[in-house]
């Protein structure tokens, strides 16, 4: 038991650090290959931080542990909408532009709601395919919408935020990207196997382990990226990254996992948890929409909501 718990902790640490290196390497490689900062900001950074959830849920489905993988995605979305966003609000009270709320905010809320419905009602591959189609539509609309903005300075800042201090050549950037990806894959494999064994030993549902411990670990890249951007005053990028991660988790991760193991996402005992996930995302949007700013009081309310969520999940 002690050995498996130690391996679980190691896997959580490695997956967070290696995912951060992967995003850094991918962003720098894109810059050196003259890829648009728009693509770097929206796709590489926004969705790249969702890589741990994708690999964890995919490997869990392959090993017939869908409840653990999907539970981690559900829990990660809750972590992003409460703990991560709430911490940022409590510290810096970020102000958000209306375009981020209308585009990324509403898109991720629709995606999260669709994911919640799939958890309870999914029975065949059609549902999972529709989630992947939603992902493609969201990426396309986000890129098109951002190109229509009169000023893409925020995306330029996002690229510079990630690239600052990393004077790497193309070879080093590619090496960091590949090594980061391989470490994420290996640590995700270790995370799934050790978390499953710990759950069995403690007599706890794998879904509970997924929505709590695994979810917190796989959300660390979003937290690290968000805090790094917040320190530089890029509040839109902080919230945009959270929304992008939630959208990616709710479409790509669930869609891929479902196609690998059709029917495994039909997990009725996660119905209440999925309801909390949708509610948390909705409340976060309402807080941000009220004054285009997340006050410190609202930030603390979200953090408290996360604490209550943990108590409810392990009860």
What keyword list fits this structure?
mainly alpha, 0% strand, A middle domain of Talin 1, 315 residues
The end-to-end span amounts to 22 Å
CATH level 3 topology: A middle domain of Talin 1
Determine the CATH superfamily: NCX, central ion-binding region
- What is the count of distinct domains? 1
Give start-end ranges of low-pLDDT stretches: 150-164
Strand content: under 5%
What does this structure look like?
By secondary structure, the chain is mostly helical. It has 13 helices and no strands. Helix 1 crosses helix 10, helix 3 crosses helix 8 and helix 4 (66-92) packs antiparallel against helix 11. Mean pLDDT is 75; it is low at 150-164.
List strands and helices in order, with pairings:
Blueprint: H1 2-32, H2 37-48, H3 51-62, H4 66-92, H5 98-121, H6 125-147, H7 153-163, H8 170-202, H9 206-218, H10 220-231, H11 235-260, H12 271-291, H13 296-314
In a few lines, what is going on in this structure?
The protein is mainly alpha-helical and 315 residues long. Helices cover 84% and strands 0% of the residues.
């Amino acid at each position: 038991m002690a050995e498996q718990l130690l391996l679980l902790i190691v896997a959580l640490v490695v997956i967070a650090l290696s995912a951060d290196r992967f995003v850094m390497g991918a962003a720098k490689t894109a810059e050196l290959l003259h890829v648009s900062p728009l693509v770097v900001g929206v796709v590489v950074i926004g969705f790249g931080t969702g890589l741990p959830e994708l690999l964890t849920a995919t490997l869990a489905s392959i090993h017939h542990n869908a409840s653990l993988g999907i539970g981690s995605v559900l829990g990660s979305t809750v972590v992003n909408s409460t703990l991560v966003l709430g911490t940022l609000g409590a510290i810096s009270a970020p102000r958000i532009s209306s375009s981020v709320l209308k585009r990324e905010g509403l898109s991720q809320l629709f995606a999260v709601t669709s994911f919640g419905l799939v958890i309870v009602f999914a029975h065949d591959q059609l549902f999972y395919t529709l989630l992947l189609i939603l992902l493609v539509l969201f990426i396309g609309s986000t890129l098109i919408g951002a190109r229509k903005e009169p000023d893409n300075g925020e995306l330029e800042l996002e690229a510079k935020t990630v690239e600052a201090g990393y004077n790497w050549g193309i070879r080093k950037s590619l090496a960091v990207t590949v090594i980061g990806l391989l470490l994420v894959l290996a640590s995700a494999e270790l995370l799934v196997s050790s978390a499953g064994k710990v759950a069995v030993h403690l007599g706890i549902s794998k879904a509970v382990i997924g929505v709590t411990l695994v979810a917190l670990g796989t959300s660390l890249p979003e937290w690290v990226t968000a805090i790094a951007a917040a320190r530089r005053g890029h509040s839109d990028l902080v919230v945009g990254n959270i929304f992008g991660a939630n959208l990616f988790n709710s479409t790509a991760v669930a869609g891929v996992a479902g196609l690998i193991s059709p029917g495994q996402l039909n997990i009725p005992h996660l119905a209440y948890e999925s309801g909390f996930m949708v509610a948390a995302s909705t409340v976060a949007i309402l807080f941000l929409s009220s004054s285009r700013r997340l006050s410190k009081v609202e930030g603390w309310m979200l953090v408290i909501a996360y604490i209550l969520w943990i108590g409810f999940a392990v009860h």
